Amino acid sequence: MSVMEREGDTVSTGAREYLTFRLDQEEYGIDILKVQEIRGYERPTRIANAPEFIRGVVNLRGTIVPIVDMRLKFNCAKAECNAFTVVIILNLRSRIVGIVVDSVSDVMELPPESLKAAPEMDSMIDSSAVVGLGSVGDRMLILLDIEKLMSGLDMGLVSGEV
Amino acid sequence: MAETQQESGGSGDSFDLTQFYQIFFEEAGENLDLMEQMLLNLNLETADDEELNGIFRCAHSVKGGAATFGFSDVAELTHQMESLLDRLRRHELQPNALMVDVLLESADASRSLLARHQAGETGEPPSSADLVRRISELASGTTPSQAAPAPVAQPVPAVVPPPTGLSVKGERQLEIRMGPLERPAQADAVKELFRDITGLGEIVDMPSDRADTRVFKVGTSSSNEDLLDLFAFHVSREHVAIRDLGEAVGVGVAPQPGHAAMSFADDPPPGTPIAPAPGFGFFEGAPGAPEAVKVTAEGAEPKGSAKVVARPNAAHQVQPEAATIRVAINKVDQLINLVGELVITQAMLAQNSRSLDPAVYQQLLTGLADLDRNTRDLQESVMSIRMIPMSIVFSRFPRMLRDLASKLGKKVDFVTQGEATELDKGLVEKITDPLTHLVRNSCDHGIEMPEDRIKAGKPETGTITLSAAHQGGSIVIEVRDDGRGLSREKILKKARERGLDVSDQMSDADVWQLIFAPGFSTADVVTDVSGRGVGMDVVKRNIAALNGTVEIDSSEGYGMRVSVRLPLTLAIMDGMSVGVGEEVYILPLSSVVESFQVKDEAVNTVGQGSRLVKVRDEYMPVIELEKVFQVPRFDFEKSSDIMVVVEAEGSRVALLVDELLGQQQVVVKNLETNYRKVPNVSGATILGDGKVALILDTSALVRRSRH
């Protein structure tokens, strides 16, 4: 990875670091600063009457953390949980939330010029939660504003208040 | 639930308050430290309300506690500090460096007074008379700055404390000056005291040189302190000045501590309106120089010397200071979480070692068994650090109420309920102050005088009830009294006076909420008990900080109920774990009545399929947890055939479950921290194997069955 201007560049001008993960065949990136840790999948405690993509809650060292399955949320063809299934624990403002993904790829530094605005499209994802598309070689990264995505009312993570 | 009744009369005496001294000393120390810190950081030019309010609240809390425990010297000093701070936060005075100095000195003096009480009240009491005088001078605004000469023409309404330990026999002639007062008519009420209380003495009006000041000539045999106490109902202490007119029998017994301060107050040396502490030097070595004054002059240090004196005979009755250590709550939380992890790891090891051959791995298995026992003990001890029963809080009140009631001339019974309810220490500490305010308010403003009660057709003795209970996902603490209740008109009138936006159409609940506005008070007179309007604002603020709510319910003439509802976060609970399908749920043990295996014929259906079960001649609705929680079934061999009868909000329902797994203490965790409210669930807990189990909200389930 090329080392570009490193100092004080992470705010708006310079390159940002993204954690990339796979959902089925698609590759997504989220701001690395929102990631608290990455864990293996363990079966959560189911919560009755919750949306299907909320797998339940787990105990993260004494804290009760809800687990959202991104594959169910984004309507992926299959959402199996096996030895490679990974949970990314996110620290969003004052909340801690875990998301289930197929696998975590790596951490990438993307300069702003390699980001392209996402075109209007019909997808499961609220288009305002997509920051842009990043191109790394011939791969396409869908960059998500995970905070916005998670605090959306349709996620059912918050009750009423935003 | 345990229930005790503490009479406000004689039985209150037997109650040992000393066990709470330690808590008070710690709290007061913390408050004084905090105040000192805030005073030091205070920017005099740009002091904002928040800072001044904060400092004020510290003084208020220390005063409240000191009064509760009967440390009148500390209460008196902090009361003066409070008065000064009160005027500062109302912007009636501009803070200056002199005030900060005096307040800091007073904080030191309060500390040394407390240290003396803590050491068992032995040794010479340090006198705070001089500080009290200086603060009240500052508070009255008569000495604007160090440079300005003392205004000679203006009388200084200084509080002159009575000579300590001096019992006055015989009648004395006193000149009592009350003012400056907003409504001088208040002072006239004092005359009624002399008329009503036989043996108090004579009072005669004297010409006053100022319109806002009343002057009386009094002949009495009561001590100054008693008089001040009596007057406090009508005129606050800082507005009363008592001057001896001489011809007293038995006053000039000996040079007593305090006398120097008295003459000092009457005749301040010109040019030194406020004597700085070192200024006392000129007393040193003078024959009969009051020792106690010197102790205060040395301000910061008498702590040590007082303790040294106290040690020899106090050791057997006072706990040494090292008996407790104060630890930051987050350190304890971290400990709890780590122990939780340890228990899970231990459980995993135990599971994996089961397949080992005991003959070969004997030592390893013995070690694991020890580990098992030790982790459990460790977990139990760590948990117990945080949990204390409400009785710790409740038992502070009987004595306070007794003193307060006798001071106010009221008759009050104090009843407590549910003191076994365990609550997180962090919550207990934070709930104590608000509760103290609420109980004081009930006694001071709620309960009427005995004769008024009889007139209103109520029993002469009022009742104040303090109760605690777990309710759904919360703990509810209630302060009830059967006094006069809140007056809607009076509150609305006060609110309008203060320029708040109110209308006559407001609902009762909205009107009651008005009393939580900062500085709002419905009391006509500010006493040293309450009425400054800080109480409710502090109550609301403290409880909101705990994510709690305060509700008021009142009916004029019949009483008032204040319910404080706090979330159960980290409260510990006895739970019964039940299995449904593959899942485990926790029921609060306190709501479980009984459980039994059900026979098919005992269940009847009514109307649209709702089912009833007959338990000992009583029909109750059946709630199938499997359906409520949509539990998936994999094993169709098993089915729910056990009924657990739970009671909540006065009615019973039978929950249908697969199996009973056991009883255990669980730590209640909040689901809403990272998730949201889940219907029929009050919280979650972590089981021994590290899995999360949901705690059922029995009240919600009962309510559900009603629809």
Write the layout of secondary structure elements.
The complex is a heterodimer of chains A (162) and B (707).
Chain A: E1 16-23, E2 26-31, E3 35-40, E4 54-60, E5 63-69, H1 70-73, E6 86-92, E7 95-101, E8 103-110, E9 115-116, E10 130-136, E11 139-144, H2 146-151
Chain B: E1 3-6, H1 21-41, H2 49-68, H3 72-89, H4 97-118, H5 129-140, E2 172-178, H6 185-196, E3 201-206, E4 214-220, H7 224-231, E5 240-244, H8 259-266, H9 291-297, H10 302-314, H11 329-353, H12 362-386, E6 387-389, H13 391-394, H14 397-408, E7 412-417, E8 422-424, H15 425-446, H16 450-455, E9 462-471, E10 474-481, H17 488-497, H18 508-513, H19 535-545, E11 549-555, E12 559-567, E13 572-580, E14 583-588, E15 592-597, E16 603-606, E17 610-615, E18 618-624, H20 625-628, E19 642-648, E20 651-657, E21 659-667, E22 681-686, E23 692-696, H21 698-706
Parallel strand pairs in B: 7-9, 14-23, 18-20
Antiparallel strand pairs in B: 1-7, 2-4, 2-5, 3-4, 6-8, 9-10, 10-12, 11-12, 13-14, 13-21, 15-19, 16-17, 17-18, 19-20, 22-23
Helix pairs in contact in B: 1-2, 1-4, 2-3, 3-4, 3-5, 4-5, 4-10, 11-12, 14-15, 15-19
Description:
The complex is a heterodimer of chains A (162) and B (707). Chain A has helices at 70-73, 146-151; strands at residues 16-23, 26-31, 35-40, 54-60, 63-69, 86-92, 95-101, 103-110, 115-116, 130-136, 139-144. Chain A has a six-stranded mixed beta sheet with strand order 8-1-2-11-10-9. Chain A has a single domain (16-153), classed as CheA-289, Domain 4 (OB fold (Dihydrolipoamide Acetyltransferase, E2P), Beta Barrel), CATH 2.40.50.180. Chain A is mostly beta strands and 162 residues long. With 707 residues, chain B is an alpha+beta fold. Chain B folds into five domains: 13-147 and 265-326, HPT domain (Four Helix Bundle (Hemerythrin (Met), subunit A), Up-down Bundle); 167-252, ACT domain (Alpha-Beta Plaits); 329-389, Helix Hairpins, CATH 1.10.287; 391-567, Heat Shock Protein 90, CATH 3.30.565; 572-706, Beta Barrel (OB fold (Dihydrolipoamide Acetyltransferase, E2P)), CATH 2.40.50.180. Chain B contains 21 helices and 23 strands. The longest helix of chain B is centred in the middle third of the chain and has 25 residues, at 329-353. Chain B starts with a strand and ends with a helix. The relative contact order of chain B is 0.08. Chains A and B meet through strand 4, strand 5 and strand 7 of A and helix 11, strand 22 and strand 23 of B.
